[in-house]
């Protein structure tokens, strides 16, 4: 995960990494130091659970440092910080591998105390910018997820739906049939021969709820003077995502037709 352009090691030997709208993230040797999430205890327990389960899809939780920052193991690889910088990040082999990782997460957490009475534990923020890729003979493939701050009990369909609209184009100029096709690739690879059903109509409805919840959540957070949310709104993200929601509402039937319903 290379540093952002213009950033480099600070006097303490720490290297600021890209991102930073919500949490400040630096690399120190073979560790990552970042602003702790509000659910720090849950995230720590989840990462320890995934390590014990051998899921191999998240950094290891190493505790906190003298500044109170979350300390995680560094994962070598590439993160697509710049949208569409390499089509390999969004190619079908990457989508299939993505679905396999999501299924591995859900299977590892289903029935665990962390899931409570829910179906499983969801990452809650699956996007290319929270995903580590490595080059393989099959191309760029995802190998692990970062930024578990929004993880919590939930339904399997929630992470699959969230990934579907984050690994596809939305808004003016986007192809609704392509969004549906990509959602279908994810669903087929996730369910396999023995997975739980993920009805197409429900997938689209969950996507709509998530897109609306995203812009409304940023807007409400900015109104509460939360710095990260205020920065996102100032960057035009509320307006952008609101437009995505309107677009998806208009093209819902086309998306569903391409997604199908097995």
Quick structural summary:
This protein has helices at residues 40-52, 92-109, 156-166, 176-191, 200-223, 227-234, 237-250, 252-259; strands at residues 15-16, 25-28, 31-34, 61-64, 70-73, 120-122, 131-136, 139-145, 152-154.
Task: Tell me about this structure.
Keywords: Transferase. This is Phosphotransferase enzyme family protein. There is one protein chain. The chain is an alpha+beta fold and 262 residues long. It has a domain at 15-73: Phosphorylase Kinase, domain 1, CATH 3.30.200. The chain has 8 helices and 9 strands. The chain has helices at 40-52, 92-109, 156-166, 176-191, 200-223, 227-234, 237-250, 252-259, and strands at residues 15-16, 25-28, 31-34, 61-64, 70-73, 120-122, 131-136, 139-145, 152-154. A 5-stranded antiparallel β-sheet has the order 1-2-3-5-4, covered by helices on one side. Strand 7 and strand 8 form a beta hairpin. Helix 4 (176-191) runs parallel beside helix 8 (252-259). The model is unreliable at 1-9 (pLDDT under 50).
């Amino acid at each position: 995960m290379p540093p952002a352009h213009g950033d480099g090691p600070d006097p303490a030997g720490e290297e600021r990494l890209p991102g930073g709208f919500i949490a400040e993230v630096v690399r120190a040797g073979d560790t990552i130091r970042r602003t702790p999430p509000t659910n720090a205890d849950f995230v720590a327990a989840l990462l320890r659970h995934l390590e014990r389960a051998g899921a191999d899809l998240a950094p290891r939780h190493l505790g906190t440092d003298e500044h109170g920052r979350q300390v995680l193991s560094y994962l070598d690889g590439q993160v697509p910080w710049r949208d569409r910088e390499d089509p390999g990040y969004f190619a079908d082999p990457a989508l299939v591998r993505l679905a396999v990782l999501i299924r591995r997460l859900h299977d590892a957490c289903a029935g665990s105390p962390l899931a409570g009475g829910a179906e499983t534990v969801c990452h809650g923020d699956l996007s290319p910018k929270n995903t580590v890729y490595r080059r393989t003979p099959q191309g760029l493939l995802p190998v692990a997820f970062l930024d578990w701050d929004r993880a919590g009990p939930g339904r399997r369909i929630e992470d699959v739906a969230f990934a579907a609209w984050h690994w596809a184009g939305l808004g003016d100029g986007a192809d609704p049939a392509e969004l549906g096709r990509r959602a279908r690739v994810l669903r087929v690879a996730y369910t396999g021969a023995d997975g739980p059903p993920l009805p197409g109509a429900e997938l689209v409805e969950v996507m709509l709820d998530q897109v609306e919840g995203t812009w409304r959540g940023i807007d409400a957070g900015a109104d509460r003077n939360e710095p990260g949310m205020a920065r996102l709104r100032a960057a035009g993200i509320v307006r952008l995502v609101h437009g995505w929601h309107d677009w998806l509402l208009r093209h819902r039937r086309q998306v569903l037709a391409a997604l199908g319903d097995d």
